What does this fold into?
Amino acid sequence: MTKADIVTEISRSTGLEKASVLAVVESLMEVIKDNMAKGENVYLRGFGSFVVKERAQKVARNISKQTSLVIPAHKKPTFKPCNTFKEQVAK
It folds into this structure.
């Protein structure tokens, strides 16, 4: 499912115009991205959590060239679905 499919589905179920639904969906995504870029987590009750995880520095190996590469510490965005979401998908 694409963003366009989501907008169409929401527009169909709510009766709102696609343009206004698209503006809301894009605004939601921007708010989530902006807050995660600041290092803040976003919690949507009944859906899940968008969490910023800190990854430690580590050493990786390129086996074909027999070299080591240092991967610096970094932050990674992740999504953790709530339990009801997991149960619904598992069915």
